[in-house]
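[step 3/7] fold_predict: job queued, chain A
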Amino acid sequence: MLAVGLLVENPRNPNRHPLAQIEALAKVIQKTGWRSPIVISTRSGFIVKGHGRLEAARRLAVAEVPVEYQAYATEAEEWSDMIADNRIGELAEMDFAALHGLLSEATATGLDLATAGFTDSAFKELEKLVNGASPSAVADASAQAPDAGVTSERLVLGKYKVDVPMARANDWLRDIYARVNNDEMLVIAEAKNRLGLE
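[step 4/7] structure written:
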């Protein structure tokens, strides 16, 4: 365990943690405890993995956090590990039906959705998606009943992650899907064009 005040964030970390993510992570830590330590480089003294966990610990006013030290031969090796930690999870593809089944079973036994990083409204959106609602119907539902305090949505377009107002994101997605007939590559290209990317 190490005092929170002694941890040093890596100033080159490209990953950003929106408030909603930090709040969800803080709820998980508060309810289930620490599942992963914060990883610190013995070479630089900077955090390599766990910047979000540090922010959640600060939000919880935790005095100490679990840490693990790792040695890196070079600065580039350290950066590579930090980037991979951020990137590898982004490459996963979610099986929404399996996720819904797992969450449904777990909540039937008393699981608090917050410990899985879900809100009630996010779980309801997942249910609609799994039960055959179109992407635009799910977008309409989320625009009609967003979580309190949530005013933007993170759009992931290939390597880009963009926060845009939820109503605007939903309008864009409906319009784009209608124009390009659900071709995912064309959806990404059209969204990038609207955002002025590339």
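[step 5/7] annotate
Residues 133-151 have pLDDT under 50 and may be disordered.
The CA atoms of residues 125 and 138 lie 6 Å apart.
exit 0
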